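Students often ask what a 'structure token' actually looks like in practice. Rather than answer in the abstract, let us consider Nucleotidyl transferase domain-containing protein, a protein of 478 residues. Its sequence is given first.
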Amino acid sequence: MSLPTFQTLLKFHNHHEKPPLKLPSRFFITNSQRPDCQFSPFFPAISQSVAAVVFGEASEHQRSRLYPLTKRRSEGAIPIAGSYRLIDAVISNCINSNITKIYALTQFNSTSLNSHLLRAYSGGLLANQEFLEVIAAYQSPEDNGWFQGTADAMRRCLWVLEKHPALEFLVLPGHHLYKMDYQKLLEEHRNNKADITVAVLDNMKEENTGFGSFKIDVNNNNNNRVIGFKEEQELFMPLPVNGSNFNGEMFSGMGIYVMNRHVMIKLLKESFPKANNLKNEVIPGAISLGLKVHAYRFDGYWEDMRSIEAYYEANMESTKKKNMKYNFYDRDFPVYTLPRHLPPSLVTNAAITDSVIGDGCILNRCSIRNTVIGPRTRVGDGAVIEDSVIMGSDIYQSIPEQRNGGGDGKHASIPIGVGEGSFIKRAIIDKNAKIGKNVKIINRDNVLEGNNETDGYIITSGIIVVVRGAVFPDESIL
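Now compare that with the structural description of the same chain:
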């Protein structure tokens, strides 16, 4: 049986109310050993002259704050809201903004992310100039180390990027949750005739986002020109602007940049050939050189998943019926992901309130409240789950496998899922966890921070995080 195409899904979703959105129709995985690249010889029209560069993971500091969710995956591959991955929000922003020339630069724990991108976005309309290409980190005789940062990664991938006839490159972190029409960002960039445009948070001034703060001349005559950059407490790189009183306002950065093609190449190759990072080396350096750097002030919801608590709260937001900070059900700005083609969830005498249930779940006479349940989750009779995130399972176990737990180990009789009579509250359960009967995951001692990874879990901000594949025998209490 043939699978439904993305254009069919788009027509179904939008009920023919507007022209179908185009999705990437070609997908490649590239490394330094591949000399050829498939591009159209025709220079694209101005409306289609933008290529997006999406980074699959954050810095080491940000990554460690999402541990252990990042133990076997990058930030962009972390599941959210039952059916999605974090990177889906950013790729969907591109698609909804009619940007369908996308490069994904991946490195840290990238197997899961690369697989998801390949399977989720390799279909679509058969247009000649649409693609999503993964550029995996590599080592070569010239570069025998891994990517050292965003600037280093882009410089080492210029052999691919330079072949694309884009006028501007849109640089995006791949692990943030927000909705932005990038066409508005690009329109402001072009209207200001800027060399670089940085996106900043209009409603979160001077908050520590990890991307520094930009001092902006809010004088209307200067169209939000950037006149300085601050990381932590020290202001540097002031940029004189004619007619400016230098009494600018500070705005927090988002790690989102629009860079003109020739400016990007010159900065990376000539001006700052040794720079590793865009945020605190190349962008401030461009300001110091007197380039036209402007700011695009974004006033919508934005969450950069900088902590386990932030990730937990974003999932809890998805269970709300209204006034969501981020709406996964917006038909005018949909979120795309991998169609899994799983059967509907089977619910038997279960009480479910204010929750999100993924596909292919088996819920037997249980109680679920204010919880996100991921695909293929099995919950036994009498189990109670409240205020939690259950990521689900990668596989279905057969009845014999369920009876012996799929193995011959010490706790071989415990199958994947939540066992009968168990109670889970304010927890994040990573994939393929085996929770036995009458287990209590409730943070009994009200611990705020604790590292029990050897026992299969940690506690951060009072939230219990169960690691992927952990096993908890019957009657366990956390």
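One point worth highlighting: Residues 264 and 270 are 10 Å apart (CA to CA). Ask yourself how you might have guessed this from the sequence alone, and why that guess would often be unreliable.
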